[in-house]
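Hello,

I think I submitted the adenosine monophosphate job twice by accident. Can you confirm which output corresponds to this input? Input:
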Amino acid sequence: MSEIPTDKEVGFVPTMGALHQGHLSLVERGRERSDYIVVSIFVNPTQFNDKKDLKRYPRTPERDLQKLKEVGVYAVLLPTVEEIYPNYHKESSEVEAGESGVNLNGLDRYGEGAHRPGHFDGVVEVVSRLFDIVKPNFALFGEKDYQQLVIVRHMVKKLNYNIEIVASPTIRESDGLAMSSRNALLSREEREGAPVIYEALKEIESYLKMAHATAEKSHKRADKGKESIKAVKEMAIKKIEANPLFKVEYLLIVDGNTLLPIEHLNESDLLRATIAVVVGKVRLIDNIELKTN
Ligand code: AMP
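Support: Only one job matched these inputs. Its output is below.
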């Protein structure tokens, strides 16, 4: 492995493997800026609140390495659990879920944070550990995991890392389903129905655009917005759950900075709809930015 010249930047893409085009898009984006891209593949046990989910998580290291060879990266980090967490208990295969020590200021109060207790502590813990090992100048994260992206940015500020966090857009299959390693776990029938999630998010966007325009002209602006949010959420949930295989775990319309649910459309300039849907044994998450004008 060649030395990295001191005037060159190191870009970092942390992943849990089972790589798809979404992951590779982060690498490609990083390569636009630097030839020195490091990718890590590590299925982090501390961010899984559900041990069955951890066990089931797809692992395809050989195929991943082949894909990374094809796109061209500087180095791939494949650490063991013991290397990342020296206090790993071999017998019980458990890791002491350490407190990350970072106050998340409520960013984990809703969404994934509310439904996967301890998840973001685990994410902060592993990302900071990986940052300490790789020492990158910049790191790329996907908007697909929007709450994670916001929390990582927050962590970088709190822990004073001199690392730029670069956000990369969600890559989707041609039918709109957000690419995810977990998509491989869907049955044919579940996979066929899954594009409804993105369709529902797009419908929320167009409905709110319309509601916003109407509310602008209305005297009861704030109230109207409140009704619209409730109505549009009900509409989207109904659309998705029309298929009995799909159950919406949460659907939120949040301020894109604070991640707190909004009540009125004019409350924030940066709106995001975020969703988790349970399909059989699989949980799918997605989100979109809501442009209201
Ligand atoms: P994961 O392996 O799921 O932990 O994801 C590793 C990185 O890839 C995270 O920054 C994710 O947000 C990003 N990522 C996963 N899926 C996608 C996608 N469909 N589009 C863009 N980025 C993604």
